[in-house]
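Q&A log
Question type: sequence-to-structure
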Amino acid sequence: MDTRLAVRARAGLATMTAVTALLYAIQCVNMATRGLLTRWFGIRPRDVSSLPDIVTSPLVHDSAGWGHLAANTLPLFVFGFLAFLAGARQFFTAIGLSWLASGTGVWVFGGSLFGSPSITVGASGVIFGLFGFLLVRGFFNRSWWQILLALVLF
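Response status: OK
Response body:
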């Protein structure tokens, strides 16, 4: 293995481990406060006061239990790690763009126009953004194994 790739792999593993630990710590606080973080930091679609929540909502998960966070953990960890192998700058760009694009999409298009207000939390949008990054990267690199890996992981 190329030494640069090994360094990126170690850094990616450390980064995604830290991100996972942070998400679980936030979930502990959210559950202990009976969903206070969900109510404070979740996206309320088309509510102007909720625009800053685009930045915070991927860090918070459903306070009813561990299922939502558990379902997000493995795909986020794997896709994040694989994205980090492209380099830290590409990783942070992919994370940032998918984070903001998915949150903005939820803010604009989420919820119901006629039902009760909804609150959206979770890292699913970031996960799909990382998947898209890996797939597009495979096409740009003309690497069939990268494309196949992204599709298999999907």
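Response note: The radius of gyration is 17 Å.
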